[in-house]
Amino acid sequence: MTQLSKEEGVILTLIERFEKQRLPRLLELKEKSDTGECLSEVDIAFLDSVIQDAQNSKHLIDRHPEWQIFCAKSGTAGDKLHGKCLAAVSSNSECTD
Question: Which of 4, 10, 23, 27 counts the highest number of beta carbons within 10 A?
């Protein structure tokens, strides 16, 4: 197996994990945030881990421009959600008790 095909396999695995595991949970957290519910420490840790994983995968995406638009859009959406959720927590005194 060549380096290129190994990298493509890793990228496809990451995309599948995002689609089947991360995206559904992110959408749940968006709904939670949209309705004013407090995020738990576990929810916030999950958001942080998604961002950290994306940053750790950046070197792969840099070498595969065919995935850059997908990853950029996913990352932007995740960053917006993260910021929105953290703002909701800080503005809701019930969430900080």
Answer: 23
